[in-house]
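4.2 Preliminary Data

To establish feasibility before requesting continued support, the project team ran the inverse folding procedure on a target of 184 residues. The structure was first converted into the token representation described in Section 3, and no sequence information of any kind was made available to the design step. The complete token record follows.
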């Protein structure tokens, strides 16, 4: 019995030793630090630069539309936001205009396809109050979908004769053309 125990301990210790062994890859040589050249001051970003430098939209997070096209991440408690579901209102909000988002070059090169799903809170004054990401895509596609969702035009929902905020689900599909790897 003691021989079996010794053999078992030897097998376990060899297994552990192999598991902790290096993969055989060599570490890259450590480069000595070189002095960095002094860079010229960068110009202040323009409106188009602000649209390309973006917040990365994450699932189950809320965002607000801004006048300059940037995204503002909302960190308030979403439970405090009151919006009605379509079945809770007398007259549902009516979408008048829903623009289509554009592909980013990175997503096109990577061949990313799919659907971005957003929950949009349509305000009683005709403005988009907040946008929640339910399903996202990488390479800036979610952010582009949020930007065009900010441009949705609608007639507000009505409950009890008053205009009220209403949540709606909005989907934006990103599909590359079959005829070209670069798509539409």
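Position-by-position output of the design step:
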């Amino acid at each position: 019995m003691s021989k079996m125990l010794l053999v078992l301990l030897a097998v376990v210790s060899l297994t552990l030793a192999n598991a902790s062994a290096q993969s055989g890859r060599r570490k890259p040589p450590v480069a000595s630090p070189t002095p960095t050249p002094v860079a010229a001051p960068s110009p202040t970003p323009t409106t188009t630069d602000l649209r390309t430098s973006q917040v990365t939209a994450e699932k189950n997070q809320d965002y607000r539309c801004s006048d300059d096209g940037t995204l503002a991440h909302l960190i308030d408690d979403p439970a405090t936001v009151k919006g009605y579901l379509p079945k809770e209102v007398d007259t549902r909000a009516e979408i008048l205009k829903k623009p289509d988002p554009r592909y980013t070059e990175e997503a096109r090169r990577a061949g990313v396809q799919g659907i971005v799903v957003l929950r949009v809170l349509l305000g009683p004054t005709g403005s988009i109050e907040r946008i929640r990401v339910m399903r996202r895509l990488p390479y800036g596609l979610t952010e582009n979908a949020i930007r065009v969702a900010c441009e949705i035009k609608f007639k507000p929902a009505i409950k009890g004769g008053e205009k009220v905020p209403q949540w709606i689900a909005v989907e934006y599909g990103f599909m590359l053309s079959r005829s070209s790897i670069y798509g539409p």
